[in-house]
Backbone:
């Protein structure tokens, strides 16, 4: 009996010691996590969530999903939300009001993009063995040429907060089915009925198509596809946006509030001074 009591006391002593050691460790971990979150950079006061300025503009934030040229969620996208400088968001709201009267709505694919996301793109581009999404996004481009041809760069205007990737959707907007990782990929310049389904109007290529057919005024893009591109271009330029000639979806509001600053706060409402 005495021997059993001694063994029991020993076990209890060991258990108490483990509990004592575990509690501070868990507390320290929680504290470290909270400190890391608090240490994340914040957006300047004049950055806003687009939905707080115009909730009617559709959002399909591709880099929060694996349906992009990398094939996984991109670093820095904590939430699927569009963040912009206030002047850019206000201008987009004005453009939306005009388009709604014509039976269209805007849809954004990407807005503010943190520098850590751009760094993720650069690491991916340097890994020549990772070509999982080539068949859809860059079927005719050798990955060794992504930097040379300007598809990937170490800095992006998106990180300054006034650049966005955008398209048009005919109303009433139909839902877009989610991408299923591993599903067969179709070239982004294939006929619309063959490429990945998107509820946007036909622009001749899908979003983020690494091909010269994505050039806004490429002469091979004709008819309805060209008219759709010009409708988007004309509407946005009328509100102060400037198109990147190599990408029909890429627009920057001018003058930019932060023309020389590349931010790195996460894409999250928690990054905003006024999240609502």
Residues:
């Amino acid at each position: 009996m005495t021997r059993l009591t001694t063994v029991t006391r020993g076990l209890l002593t060991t258990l108490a010691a483990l509990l004592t050691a575990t509690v501070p460790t868990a507390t320290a971990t929680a504290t470290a996590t909270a400190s890391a979150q608090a240490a994340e950079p914040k957006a300047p006061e004049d950055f806003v969530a687009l939905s707080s300025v115009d909730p009617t503009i559709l959002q399909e934030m591709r880099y929060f999903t694996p349906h992009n040229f990398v094939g996984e969620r991109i670093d820095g996208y904590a939430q699927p939300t569009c963040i912009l400088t206030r002047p850019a968001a206000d201008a987009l709201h004005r453009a939306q009001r005009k388009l709604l009267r014509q039976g269209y709505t805007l849809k954004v694919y990407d807005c503010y993009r943190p520098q850590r996301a751009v760094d993720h793109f650069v690491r991916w581009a340097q890994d020549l063995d990772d070509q999982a999404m080539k068949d859809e996004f860059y079927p005719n481009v050798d990955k060794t040429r992504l930097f040379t041809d300007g598809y990937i760069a170490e800095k992006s205007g998106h990180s300054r907060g006034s650049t966005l990737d955008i398209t048009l959707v005919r109303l009433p907007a139909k839902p877009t089915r989610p991408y299923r990782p591993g599903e067969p990929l179709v070239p982004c310049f294939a006929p619309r009925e063959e490429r990945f389904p998107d509820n946007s109007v036909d622009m001749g290529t899908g979003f983020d198509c690494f091909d010269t057919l994505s050039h806004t005024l490429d002469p091979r893009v004709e008819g309805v596809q060209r008219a759709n591109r010009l409708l988007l271009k004309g509407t946005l330029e009328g509100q102060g946006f400037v198109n990147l000639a190599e990408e029909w979806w890429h627009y920057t509001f001018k003058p930019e509030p932060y023309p020389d600053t590349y931010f790195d706060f996460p894409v999250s409402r928690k990054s905003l001074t006024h999240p609502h």
Summary: The beta strands are 47-49, 58-59, 83-85, 104-110, 163-170, 241-243, 250-253.
